[in-house]
Design goal:
about 450 residues; Rossmann fold; 6-stranded parallel beta sheet
Length: about 450
């Protein structure tokens, strides 16, 4: 197996290399054997849209599966990073071709990435991976605890190759008594207290309807990675970042934890209501739809009454918020009866006209067709790589900035789709690539 390792004619020796954080912004050919010229990418031109974005000179390696790792690296890709998703040949991400919802999860969280298949259990596979590590700024992984170390791609292994690497691990728990326990999104939701306040009183606890813990840990991971990259650019030193599902979800419960300690009370499941507001709930309309209403001030309450022709604004039972809370059940029954006589569209129209918080309870089909989302270009069309291969619309990065445009969505990669061009960018010739394929390394 041959690999072209001939350095450029004017390449500096390793001892003469300037610190990487000085080289990475150069517009000249890299002064060593690294590939980070042309916008700071390992394989320039394979992923469009990085130029002019905040992370256009950042390369991210992803050893991710299911939601948490892939969602984090997708967020970094949305900010312009070159993301290289590394998967096992023949199997790939655990949710590839797994089920309708598994396929859909993959198709959402894997846009804007290159797909490389490498057998990390083989010596040659790890050697290639270390070459990618040498080029990378960030690595994101969400293996089970201890797996990355057993594969030889843990933090110590990778830092020995590239001491400026920001290595981000998304785990179930921070180091401590629980760290070796298996963890899934519902485990974190159950332990954090989220399940205890979700659902309805007297009914079994309910998990969130989406992967709440996976996604909030991914968000914390992306924020922490950005901080670590900025610090690395100032100091030249990489670091390890650990982000836990459990503690990240606990952070979302912060105000309820503060409430329990301050008032010695444990909140019950609340359905769609809130203990501090009334009326504040979902109500069924005359056409059997559900509508959320929530006048959140005394002035909004008076507008609510006017909009729905309710002679309650000056009723002593409901004049102020404290009165409405004291008489919550009676008020709920009145609003429930009123909404049952009106179609959902009329309830929403009247209350929006009166500037009262209101919303229809949309299902996923409603959201896909939502006129505001369509008008604001909230979706990007991609091919459903896993599944029937049709075109689908998935949510784009929701934030806007005046200094840069959002990255256009690209199709999630087929398993190993970009292995050959990435290896060619690393200097492997066609014969070497073919041999690696024959040996099952790629």
């Amino acid at each position: 197996m041959t690999k072209d390792t001939t350095p450029p004619a004017e390449s500096a020796s390793a001892d003469e290399r300037p610190p990487r954080n000085e080289r990475r912004h150069s517009t000249d050919q890299c002064p060593d054997n690294r590939l980070r010229a042309d916008g700071g990418r390992v394989a320039p031109g394979l992923l469009p849209g990085g130029e002019g974005r905040p992370l256009s000179d950042v390369t991210v390696l992803e050893l991710g599966h299911i939601i948490a790792g892939p969602f984090c690296s997708m967020l970094l890709a949305d900010l312009g990073a070159e993301v290289i998703k590394v998967e096992s040949p023949g199997r790939g991400d655990a949710v590839r071709d797994s089920s309708p919802i598994g396929n859909s999860s993959f198709n959402y969280v894997n846009r804007n990435k290159l797909g490389v298949a490498l057998d990390l259990k083989s010596e040659d596979g790890r050697a290639i991976f270390y070459e990618l590590v040498e080029e990378a700024d960030v690595l994101v992984e969400n293996f089970a605890a201890g797996t990355a170390d057993r594969l030889g791609v843990g933090y110590d292994d990778c830092a020995a190759v590239n001491d400026e690497l920001v290595y981000c691990s998304i785990k179930g728990f921070n180091p401590g008594p629980y760290e070796s326990f298996p963890a899934l999104d519902p485990v974190a939701e159950a332990l954090s207290g989220v399940m205890s306040v979700t659902g309805h009183p007297g009914q079994p606890p309910v998990r969130s309807g989406t992967s709440l813990s996976d996604m909030v840990a991914s968000l914390y991971a992306a924020v922490t990675v950005l901080g670590a990259v900025r610090q690395r650019d100032a100091t030249g030193e990489g670091q390890q970042v650990t982000v836990p599902l459990f503690e990240s979800t606990v952070a979302l419960m912060g105000y309820w934890l503060a409430y329990t300690q301050a008032y010695d009370d444990v909140p019950e499941p609340m359905g769609a209501s809130h203990p501090g507001w009334a009326p504040y709930d979902v109500f069924q309309s005359a056409d059997d739809e559900w509508v959320f209403v929530g006048p959140s001030s005394d002035r909004a309450w008076r507008r609510f009454c006017d909009a729905l022709d309710l002679d309650l604004a000056d009723d002593e039972r409901f004049v102020e918020l404290a009165d409405r809370l004291d008489n919550r059940a009676e008020l709920h029954a009145i609003v429930e009866a009123t909404c049952a006589e009106l179609p959902a569209e009329e309830i929403v129209a009247r209350l929006r006209e009166a500037s009262v918080p209101v919303a229809p309870v949309n299902d996923t089909r409603d959201v896909c067709a939502d006129p505001h989302l369509r008008e604001t270009d909230a979706f990007g069309e991609v091919r459903a790589t896993e599944g029937d291969g049709g075109r689908i619309d998935t949510p784009r990065f929701p934030a806007r900035a005046t200094g840069f445009d959002r990255v256009e969505s690209t199709d999630p990669p087929e398993l190993g789709e970009d292995t050959e061009p990435v290896l060619e960018a690393l200097g492997y010739d066609g014969e070497a690539v073919e041999q690696l394929r024959e040996e099952g390394v790629i």
